[in-house]
Amino acid sequence: MRGVVMHTAGDVRVEERADPKIIEPTDAVIALAATCICGSDLWPYRGVEPADHQAMGHEYMGVVEEVGADVKTVKPGDFVVGSFVISDNTCEICQAGFQSKCVHAEFVAQIGTQAEKARIPHADGTLVKTPGTPDPELYPALLAASDVLGTGWFAAVAAEAGPGKTVAVVGDGAVGLMAILAAKQLGAERIIAMSRHPERQKLARYYGATDVVEERGEEGVAKIKELTSGLGAHSVVEAVGTQESFMQAVGATRGGGHLGYVGVNYDVKIPGIELFFAGIHTLGGPAPVRRFLPDLIDRIWSGEIDPGKVFDLTLPLEEAPEGYRAMDERRATKVLLTL
Amino acid sequence: MRGVVMHTAGDVRVEERADPKIIEPTDAVIALAATCICGSDLWPYRGVEPADHQAMGHEYMGVVEEVGADVKTVKPGDFVVGSFVISDNTCEICQAGFQSKCVHAEFVAQIGTQAEKARIPHADGTLVKTPGTPDPELYPALLAASDVLGTGWFAAVAAEAGPGKTVAVVGDGAVGLMAILAAKQLGAERIIAMSRHPERQKLARYYGATDVVEERGEEGVAKIKELTSGLGAHSVVEAVGTQESFMQAVGATRGGGHLGYVGVNYDVKIPGIELFFAGIHTLGGPAPVRRFLPDLIDRIWSGEIDPGKVFDLTLPLEEAPEGYRAMDERRATKVLLTL
């Protein structure tokens, strides 16, 4: 089959990879209907993380081709969306809603779903069947659920966005935009997008932002305080992952408020004393997308939400290298790859 | 009046200080019935924080002598216990239960309650009246409520200790011991004290610890995992505040679990990526003791809890310098000063 392989930083190629096969009785093999490039794929692309002939991709959806003997909830022909982390969905951690920390957790990034097919371990605990075979126009929205929507949603839930709350979202990338969508769906009263890009500000407002703050760092914090009677936001989502953005998010959260964060760079060092005197709740980590998938698929299927607009470039899988370039050069927020 | 003043690191004296007076109409002046030395008083004593002729002490209880014109809930003659942070208890942050982040928050450490008297601002929002004048045998327990009990209690609440939960407590100082007491009261199923001192292990078991782990750092984490089917504790309290103990606490918390922390040294730097991949909730900061004070006083008054045992040395105020030495040399866990 054809698949994306990163030979080394900046060198992405589409080439022949071995067809996946069922190995464990809990596996499924799916034929991808679409896949995409994640902001986190830029880390190895930019040399921030090592890359050595690595199969790429962790977002996916498609049609089940084959299942192992123990798979019960999906069968060949079913259309499925899966989380970017494998989970059994039965262990104590999964049952508590933290499937990304499942005792059988495994990152799909190790599998590489920017490809025609993929083997998905623990299919019953990882994949969720859609109500039917979707129209291709639903592909972007459903694919977003696999990571960016699920991650933004988790961030908003972690920040306890809800009725009566003021939510500040640091970052206007795909995840930040999805956190805005989620905060809106969760009933937040006011949603402040921290964004400097006119196009993304527009999308932020489309998804539910009521205010836009362009300032960053301490100025950004001061602006959030100004908008919240000096107190700070009840709920803050950190969706950038740098030292500056993380501390901006800490500073923007009111005492006793909630900070949800869904990605940090390897060099972020949080000064303990600043976090301490902030007096805030935090929850972060790879998002337990599987917890939210059934609900998110329902909301997409019913037309209640349209997360697909985060994709602003669509290319065939064979042109994945151009997709990486476009995202690296910030010509695109998020690239969908068709099959 | 007589009061404790730290001239410089290691140089603590009891000397004459000006008698406090009502300044604001929301003030009260109290005559201390007892006060004590906190582990955090050792920071300036050891030169970790600056000290320059600083009045010391932030734990207190006693009899109201005089109140300002606007004070409504306490009157001269009332016996009161107060939090180590001043709060109005009416602002939005206080109403959300985070009185230590009150818009009028002020650290009582700036006032110095190791003295015969003290002016307490925002008396209505800071002080809580006891049901009557306590017997002196209740003094240690009530005084503990002013900080160490309230702080340990907050840590256990922040860690979401409760029925069915396994709680690990990192640190066997006064706050750690109080967190054990709190976890027990909150109904935790299993309470693991991380302690190396035989005397404190004994007290930990007295307050409710079901297990003791002597290992620290990665070995300590491995031991907690071993005791929890490889998952980690649901709830972890960090009550030491060093880099090692903080990361031990992070490592001991299961994915999706809760870490409560109530003190960190100035040099603690939390690696963002480790916190991220831990996938845990955290809540920390100066404890909003005022939230818990009415309940804690009730529990002490009814004999339900006896936090007073954390004091293992009692000295008259005039001998405060010996109290500092005893704590610095670890001859005492916590020193009560009588008046």
Please describe what this structure looks like:
The structure is a homodimer of 339-residue chains. The first copy, chain A, has helices spanning 42-45, 92-95, 123-126, 139-145, 148-158, 174-185, 198-207, 217-227, 243-252, 272-278, 289-301, 320-328, and strands at 2-8, 11-16, 28-37, 54-55, 60-67, 79-82, 85-86, 106-107, 117-120, 127-129, 166-170, 190-194, 211-213, 233-238, 253-261, 269-271, 281-284, 313-316, 335-338. With 339 residues, chain A is an alpha/beta fold. In chain A, the strands form 4 sheets. In chain A, strands 3, 5, 6, 9, 10, 18 and 19 form a 7-stranded mixed beta sheet that branches. A 6-stranded parallel beta sheet of chain A has the order 13-12-11-14-15-17, with helices on both faces. In chain A, strand 11, helix 6 and strand 12 (190-194) form a beta-alpha-beta unit. In chain A, helix 5 crosses helix 6, helix 6 packs parallel to helix 7 (198-207) and helix 8 (217-227) runs parallel beside helix 9. The model of chain A has no long low-confidence stretch (mean pLDDT 97). The A-B interface holds A 92-93, 96-98, 100-101, 103, 229-231, 243, 246, 254-256, 261, 263-266, 268-273, 275-286, 288 and B 92-93, 96-98, 100-101, 103, 229-231, 243, 246, 254-256, 261, 263-266, 268-273, 275-286, 288. Strand 17 (281-284) of chain A pairs antiparallel with strand 17 of chain B, so a sheet runs across the interface.
Structure described in brief:
With 339 residues, chain A is of the alpha/beta class.
Helix content range of chain A = 25-40%
Estimate the global geometry of chain A from the Cα principal axes: globular
Q: What structural class results from the helix and strand content of chain A?
A: alpha/beta
By DSSP, the count of extended strands of chain A is: 19
The rounded Rg of chain A comes to 19 Å
Q: What's the average pLDDT of chain A?
A: 97
* Tally of separate helices of chain A: 12
**Oligomeric status:** homodimer
Query: If interface size is counted as residues with C-beta under 8 Å from the partner's C-beta, which chains form the largest one?
Result: A-B, 40 and 40 residues
Strand residues, percent of chain A: 25-35%
Gap between N and C termini of chain A, in Å? 11 Å
Low-confidence stretches of chain A: none
